Each structure stands twice: as C-alpha cells, then as structure tokens.
C-alpha cells in the first residue's frame, strides 16, 4: 500500500513538472502580417490560385515569339527560336512539364536539348538524359556548367517529366555590387536533385559564370536547340515571405512573470 502511495505521489509530481514546463512560453516579440489565403490546385501539378498560368494548353499568348512554336492538343512543341515571357519575375516557384522527342535520336547534347532560363540568364538544363551519356553538369536537371543533379530522375523519351523549381534571385546594391547570390532548389519528377544550390553567376556555354547587375525581375525563357521538345502545364508564382515588425524584445512568459531574453 505504501509503495502504491509513493508511486502516486511521484506521478503527481511528474505531471506538475510537465505542466510547469508547458506553462512557460517563448515569445519573439514580433508582430506578423497575416499570411494570405491561397487555394491549392486539385493536384500538386495544378496551379494554385495565386499563380500566373503561362501555358494552359491553349496558346502561347503570354510569351514573345510564341506564335512560332506549335500548339496542338494541349501541348506546345519547340518551333523556330526561343520564347520568352512578356512578364518578368524574381523570387518564384515554377512548375513546368516537358517530354523528350520520340523516337529518340542523336546522343549527348544533341538529344532532346532545351533549357529553362530563369531571369533569362540562370539555366536549369532540359535534356533527354535517359540512358544518354553527356557531361554531368549538362545533363537533365543540371545547373548548366555549374552543378550536376544529385541523381538522374529521367523518365523514358515520350513520357512526361516535371520540374518544380524554387528560385531566389540575387541582390545587388545601388552601385551594382553583388550583395547576395541566387539560390535554386529543383525537384525532378518529385525527386530532390538540387538543394538550395548557390549559383556562381549566370550559366553561359563559352565562359566562366559571372554576376552582372540586373533588375530584380526579368523574363523566363525556353530555348530552341533544334529538338522537338514538348511542354505543357507551365505556371509560376511569385514568392514573398510574410513580414514582421519587432515590437518588443524577445521574452519568456511563465504565468504572470515575463523574463527578457538577453
């Protein structure tokens, strides 16, 4: 009986300690804006309510030179020359679906070559890399000439591939000096292949990367390299973090007692 009583007292003490711990609350002293309400798409591929739908299967009217590509049965196929969005974007989330030509012809960089050029200068490579060898920082999902994908997540030619790209634009000061680099995260068919990669600059073919000051927003470009790459379901949403205002120093509240964090 005495043993049971001791156990009960110990249990009560433990519960009291848990209650005391839970009663203490850390407050950062920040007054936050209320996050906006966004309605997600019916699937992860569908555009959320705040996205700009750049290609919905009907036309390429939101793109410069879009009239020179082929739009049929909900699909846009590479035509003559690159296309570029009429609108400009900075920090963003980009969804794009693409398929390499069939039958597969050519090899290396000559097979299903295209590219997503963010801000018209930072390229995520599009290439038929299904059982097709090339230089690793030029295969599908590479940050061109800077970083290979962590893995090759390609589907066979003719099947649809999905890129979900999360991009942070570089920042420049008033004198055009780089303050912070560009960063990019890429999912290829739901597989993480680039994780917050810090770009070394732009992604040219014939020289080292470099940063040159440019506006905070710029167009999105799709290449044309003579391969009939197909595209569908392209949408983009600008990303703006919720802002907060520091209204007091951080503190711990425990009941009626407030302890500043120093």
UniProtKB/TrEMBL annotation:
Tell me any Pfam family this protein matches: 3keto-disac_hyd
Signal peptide feature range: 1-23
Segments forming domain 3-keto-alpha-glucoside-1,2-lyase/3-keto-2-hydroxy-glucal hydratase: 51-237
This chain's source organism reads Novipirellula herctigrandis
The record ties this protein, via InterPro entries, to: AL/BT2_dom
Keywords, A to Z, come to: Signal
Q: Which GO terms describe its molecular function?
A: hydrolase activity
Superkingdom is Bacteria
- Report the protein name in the record: 3-keto-alpha-glucoside-1,2-lyase/3-keto-2-hydroxy-glucal hydratase domain-containing protein
Keyword Phosphoprotein among UniProt keywords: no
Gene3D superfamilies under this entry? Answer: Exo-inulinase, domain 1
